[in-house]
Amino acid sequence: METQAVFDMLKGKFGDAVVELQGAGFSPAFVVVAPAAVKEVSRFLKEDPALSFDSLMCLSGVDYKEKFAVAYHLHSLKHRHAIGLKVMLPRENPSLPTVDDVWPAANFQEREAYDLFGIAFEGSKDLRRILLPEDWEGHPLRKDYKYPDFYHGIKV
Amino acid sequence: MTTRTDALPTQEMTINMGPQHPSTHGVLRVILTTDGEVVTRAVPDVGYLHRALEKIGERVTYAQYMPFTDRLDYLAAMNCNCAWAWTVEKLAKIEVPERAEYLRVIVCELNRISSHLIAFGSYTADMGAFTPFLYAIREREQVNDLFEMLCGNRLTYNYARVGGVSGDAPPGFLEKTREFLDYFEPKLDEYNNLISYNKIFVHRLANVAVIPAEEAVAYGLTGPNLRGSGVPFDLRKDEPYSVYPKFDFKVCVGTGERGTLGDCFDRYMVRINEMRESVKIVRQAVARIPDGPVRAKVPRLFKPPVGETYFRSECPRGETGIYLISDGSVNPFRLKIRTGSFVTMNIFEKVTRGLMIADVVAVIGSFDIILPEIDR
């Protein structure tokens, strides 16, 4: 199914929770949705027979300087089509509902986004740091991250 | 003699497996909760090899990032090199000369063979048979020799470039490659006779850690681990890139031939069969490679247009997807690398529940994980 058609379908179903379609320059195109609606939209994308986006290829945190974002790349093995889903988040206390009960594959990648960007996924079954030590300070992939000089007295 | 009458203490025990353990294929730590010999919970703890490759990517140029992709999966550095080049080319819409694409396919498939050889060899060694590992290393050495002839390196190749490859094949390279294929192809039958259908080996793998197809898809398994569950999905066929549509090969899937569909043996066998398909692809590519330049003209101060792209390619350990955001400057604004091994670790806790400790080793080996790719 074409991206525009998916967007129209989502817009018809979820109304204002579906914000915009990022088309030109984006491959694949992104449907931007409101943070609170991400779980319902995800479930619909997965379970609707015409869409059935059964695999979450990639989940990434992004720091756009003025805002954070979480980008989901989805693919359907059944229909062989792909789409992006994006959620824009404020810089202060970025948080959004988890999708690990829709796609179990999300868990590790959500933990990664939490670890490196400090984005909280509400309702996650297991949200801990994954790549960095548990007592690491700060979230390194943020654009305003300050490199520490020492870690436990060891020069970094 | 006294007989002990009080009950033996039987509470669960928590033990560490790794990060320094010969069977975890690198610095993987698994926190095992065991009830006797049975694992009730195995939680993987990753990150010991984190080198902030994504953060580094924001500080170097597109061309300078190429050597870092070697360190992503050092057993399949060619595939990672090419994945990066294809992503940047997709973002900037660069046309690559056909000869360069053929050379990339040749090196990617040779690297897939050498990577699967390590998977095969180390897996059998994990299962207690050391000889096949030596056979695998013997053959892999020849692939390394070919790569050394091509680009001077034996492990971290840094061969692909944005717009092509670093250099044309030297005289004699294609003939040597053909000789290697002729030598290597019969070896696969030798491996099967030696170990694949060995009764003890089959008993260690069959019916262990069965992953049904729907579960494999839901947990985002890719590559041989997904195909081991019987899902015929291969990006080279289903989302074709480069010159792969020009070659005739088959997608290998698990068949449950020695146990249940989606068990460790199926994942193992998919890799063995894929080596045969890779030989087929390289044979066709060597026979049909066109003449011409091997590198498109890309400006030295390369600035791709503003945009976002996601490109995924079939690496030996599943799909490597790169999400690349460009703000029009010389450095990537953000790049995220989704690797097969990292996503595969997500299902680890689920499939190991209730197995014996020795079977946990069988599961790790059947996933063919590599830690630099998990930790990045």
Describe the structure.
- The complex is a heterodimer of chains A (156) and B (376).
- Chain A has 156 residues and is of the alpha/beta class.
- Chain A is built from three helices and ten strands; from the N terminus they run αβββαββββαβββ.
- Chain A starts with a helix and ends with a strand.
- Chain B has helices at 53-57, 66-70, 77-92, 98-126, 131-151, 173-196, 199-205, 213-218, 223-227, 235-238, 264-288, 340-344, 348-352, 357-367, 371-375; strands at 13-17, 29-35, 38-45, 160-161, 164-165, 307-315, 318-326, 334-338.
- In chain B, the strands form three sheets. Chain B has a three-stranded antiparallel β-sheet with strand order 1-2-3.
- In chain B, a hairpin with a 2-residue loop joins strand 4 (160-161) and strand 5 (164-165).
- Chain B starts with 12 loop residues before the first strand and ends with a helix.
- Strand 2 (26-27) of chain A pairs parallel with strand 6 (307-315) of chain B.
Short description:
The complex is a heterodimer of chains A (156) and B (376). Chain A is of the alpha/beta class and 156 residues long.
CATH architecture of chain A: 2-Layer Sandwich
Overall mean pLDDT of chain B stands at 90
Shape of chain B: globular
CATH fold name of chain B: Cytochrome-c3 Hydrogenase, chain B
Total of DSSP H or I helical runs spanning 4+ residues of chain B: 15
Total beta-strand segments of chain B: 8
CATH homologous superfamily classification of chain A: NADH:ubiquinone oxidoreductase Nqo5 subunit
Gyration radius of chain A (Cα, Å) is: 17 Å
Percentage of residues in DSSP E strands of chain B: 5-15%
Strand order of the largest sheet of chain B: 1-2-3
Number of strands of chain A: 10
Q: Tell me the span between the first and last alpha carbons of chain A.
A: 49 Å
What is the percentage of strand-forming residues of chain A? Answer: 25-35%
Following the backbone from N to C, one meets helices and strands of chain B in this order, namely: EEEHHHHHEEHHHHHHEEEHHHH
